[in-house]
Design a protein that fits this description.
The protein is built from 16 helices and 16 strands. By secondary structure, it is an alpha/beta fold.
């Protein structure tokens, strides 16, 4: 079996623990796409081969049955075929792979899954351990290893400091200090790159695209846990956002514009004595100019462009029906926006439908869910970290001041499923300008320059 040096190091330790019946529990952190799943599949093939006459059960659980458990089963079957066992292995009950008398059992670690009663006497694997419930593991999976003092492996990439993987890791590091037996294995992107230079080039491009402090790069590639919540943006990131261009109020010749719209809830007889009031919803349109490199290649055109925020509009206490004509005029005639992403959550759905009817396919509705908002937050951080998003100079107006206040007050909450929530505490104000800014970044990701299409047609003509 051909494994990279760092994979071999883990495999040797695991096999030694199994053969010597040490019953060790290992934690293995390998940078994203660094070969963690291949290591697992190779170990499974090896154990099925070793125990095919004697018999035994190995158990692997994943946070979900579909797709994670299913993918693990498919990978094992493919590796068995690769090693010449294509006509010898068989499937049982839809979640067991059998070779001779040995079985590899695949289970879901979802909270609702029924797994009690299984016993592991060869190996117990916990895949993506950072996403597995501590209670589920302790009460239902850990006992599977008790009868035979079975070796256990926790695989994953770090997230925050409250996950199962981090708990196992810290326990292992403490045990290592006591007895010198290595139980925790950590291979970040730089370590993986030593064996795979191509991977290093890719990870470096991700570092440049996302920024070294981006939560996804820190956890998935650098394997550094996030410590609790705190501010969504650091002072350094806010400083990066500040641009040196002027704010202006209408489109410039030859420029391309996009917009993000965060919609307020409708208020009855709102007394709009000031533009902004703490806790009050405001409808905000953020307009940005997008730029691609003049000599950009087709591959570069597929990447997100740079964005310069050039204008803000904000309305307090206005009904959506009153805003329709003005919003359409701003987006269509003042700026000729090429892409508009609008909040279509709840009462925003009729507004997005109206704008789409008036402006056509350039309007893209956005529904806020836990997952979609998390992606929005990650993408906003990446745009700031990479220097692709800049705000116009301080102009002394309230829109600028409100956006800066929201950026400074925004908090973040990191969830165990590797998503985040970003928001302004309602007691401090609202996050309309922040969300509108994030939707502008989404609009940039949705936009593709017309030149790319023309170039594609030219290429087809040549071919």
């Amino acid at each position: 079996m051909i494994l990279r040096p760092y994979q071999q190091e883990v495999a040797k330790a695991v096999v030694d623990s199994i053969i010597s019946n040490k019953g060790l529990t290992f934690s293995v952190e390998i940078a994203r796409q660094g070969g963690k799943n291949e290591l697992s599949a190779h170990l499974e093939v090896l154990l099925l081969t070793m125990y095919m006459a004697k018999g035994g059960n190995a158990i692997k659980c994943s946070p979900t049955f579909k797709p994670q458990t299913v993918i693990s089963m498919m990978r094992l079957k493919q590796r068995l075929d690769d090693f010449g066992f294509a006509t010898l292995w068989s499937s049982e009950m839809g979640y067991i792979v059998k070779l001779g008398n040995a079985r590899q059992v695949f289970l879901s670690a979802e909270v609702s899954s029924l797994v009690v009663g299984h016993t592991a006497d060869m190996l117990l694997e916990i895949d993506e351990s950072q996403d597995v419930s501590k209670d589920k593991y302790t009460k239902e999976f850990r006992p599977m290893a008790s009868a035979f003092n079975t070796t256990t492996i926790h695989y994953g990439t770090t997230w925050d400091d409250a996950t199962l993987l981090e708990e196992i890791k810290q326990t292992n590091l403490e045990l290592e200090r006591r007895d010198g037996i290595k139980r925790h294995f950590r291979y970040d992107w730089q370590e993986v790159a030593k064996s795979n230079p191509a991977y290093g080039h890719f990870a470096e491009s991700e570092r440049q695209r996302l920024g070294e402090e981006h939560p996804l790069f820190k956890t998935q590639y650098a394997l550094l846990p996030i410590h609790g919540g705190g501010g969504f943006l650091s002072p350094q990131q806010i400083a990066q956002l500040l641009g040196d261009h002027q704010r202006y109020h209408h489109r410039q010749p030859g420029k391309v514009y996009i917009a993000g719209i965060d919609l307020a809830g409708e208020l009855e007889q709102e007394e709009a004595l000031a533009l902004i009031k703490p806790g009050r919803d405001v409808t905000v349109i953020t307009v940005a100019e997008v730029e691609f490199e003049a000599q950009a290649s087709a591959a570069e055109l597929a990447k997100q462009p740079s964005m310069k925020v050039v204008e803000h509009y904000a309305w307090l206490g206005k009904k959506h029906t009153e805003l329709y004509p003005q919003m359409v005029d701003i987006l269509k005639n003042v700026w000729a926006c090429s892409r508009v992403v609008v909040d279509a959550t709840g009462i925003g759905q009729p507004v997005s439908s109206f704008l789409k009817k008036s402006l056509g396919s350039r309007v893209k509705p956005f529904v806020f869910t836990q997952k979609s908002k998390s992606e929005l937050g990650f993408n906003l951080q990446a745009a700031i970290n990479s220097g692709r998003l800049k705000l116009y100079k301080q102009d002394g107006l309230e829109e600028y001041s409100e956006l800066m206040k929201e950026l400074q007050q925004a908090k973040t909450q990191y969830r165990s499923n590797q998503t985040l929530n970003f928001y302004v505490d309602p007691s401090q104000g609202h996050d309309d300008f922040l969300m509108s800014l994030a939707l502008v970044v989404k609009a940039a990701g949705e936009y593709q320059p017309r030149r790319a299409r023309g170039e594609l047609k030219s290429m087809k003509a040549v071919l």
